[in-house]
């Protein structure tokens, strides 16, 4: 059985729906929100790679490297904010971010 473009698109759509569900169902814990954003970016990357493979062009794969770079920076900054939030408030609640002052 060979994988077609529809298989990749269905997988990407399922990943996208799971990530949206994670963002909207659990808005209280910021760690879950950040992990859901990473899943959302992964679903977009899957689309880029699938279309790049089936069209035969490398541009989509190059775009994925840029997205992965931005995702890595976002994860590093997000985790640094989480560490500071947990040190100050002893909680990872999204509502506690509004109380932080710099």
TrEMBL record:
<feature type="transmembrane region" description="Helical">
    <location>
        <begin position="31"/>
        <end position="51"/>
    </location>
</feature>
<keyword id="KW-0874">Quinone</keyword>
<feature type="transmembrane region" description="Helical">
    <location>
        <begin position="63"/>
        <end position="86"/>
    </location>
</feature>
<comment type="similarity">
    <text>Belongs to the complex I subunit 4L family.</text>
</comment>
<comment type="function">
    <text>NDH-1 shuttles electrons from NADH, via FMN and iron-sulfur (Fe-S) centers, to quinones in the respiratory chain. The immediate electron acceptor for the enzyme in this species is believed to be ubiquinone. Couples the redox reaction to proton translocation (for every two electrons transferred, four hydrogen ions are translocated across the cytoplasmic membrane), and thus conserves the redox energy in a proton gradient.</text>
</comment>
<dbReference type="Pfam" id="PF00420">
    <property type="entry name" value="Oxidored_q2"/>
</dbReference>
<keyword id="KW-0472">Membrane</keyword>
<feature type="transmembrane region" description="Helical">
    <location>
        <begin position="6"/>
        <end position="24"/>
    </location>
</feature>
<keyword id="KW-0520">NAD</keyword>
<keyword id="KW-1133">Transmembrane helix</keyword>
<keyword id="KW-0812">Transmembrane</keyword>
<dbReference type="GO" id="GO:0042773">
    <property type="term" value="P:ATP synthesis coupled electron transport"/>
</dbReference>
<dbReference type="GO" id="GO:0030964">
    <property type="term" value="C:NADH dehydrogenase complex"/>
</dbReference>
<keyword id="KW-0813">Transport</keyword>
<keyword id="KW-1278">Translocase</keyword>
<comment type="subunit">
    <text>NDH-1 is composed of 14 different subunits. Subunits NuoA, H, J, K, L, M, N constitute the membrane sector of the complex.</text>
</comment>
<dbReference type="GO" id="GO:0005886">
    <property type="term" value="C:plasma membrane"/>
</dbReference>
<dbReference type="GO" id="GO:0050136">
    <property type="term" value="F:NADH dehydrogenase (quinone) (non-electrogenic) activity"/>
</dbReference>
<dbReference type="InterPro" id="IPR039428">
    <property type="entry name" value="NUOK/Mnh_C1-like"/>
</dbReference>
<dbReference type="InterPro" id="IPR001133">
    <property type="entry name" value="NADH_UbQ_OxRdtase_chain4L/K"/>
</dbReference>
<protein>
    <recommendedName>
        <fullName>NADH-quinone oxidoreductase subunit K</fullName>
        <ecNumber>7.1.1.-</ecNumber>
    </recommendedName>
</protein>
<keyword id="KW-1003">Cell membrane</keyword>
<dbReference type="GO" id="GO:0048038">
    <property type="term" value="F:quinone binding"/>
</dbReference>
<keyword id="KW-0830">Ubiquinone</keyword>
